[in-house]
Specification:
This protein has 129 residues and is mostly helical. It has 4 helices and no strands.
Amino acid sequence: MPTPIEPDTKVNSEWVASANIQTSEKAISETQEPAPAPASNETGPKIGAVWRGLVGIETGIVAGAVMTVYLMLDAALRGSSVWSLANLCASNFYGASALGGSFRGTTMAGLAWRGASSGVQGWITSLAL
């Protein structure tokens, strides 16, 4: 007949002690009051006007770039030069000499003007909302 295994009293006493500590910590944590709920107007992160304006500028520039690419592709599909939109924007500064169907030195000024004006429009829209 097999002999019964004697329980190790040292292991059991450590286990009982750790169980008592965990139980007492749980009891203490249950008696503490929960944190107060935030007020209804403080639920989300607060974004200041400066950050909102910077996000608006970035969004405006990205949207302007997407729209510029779309209009350049549209011009190519219609048989016009892809640079006609940028040259038209450059004519604000250089007049009729900037108009034309080819890439010129003034074309970069037109693209820069397009990006800057889109950024300003995004900034105004972000502050208005």
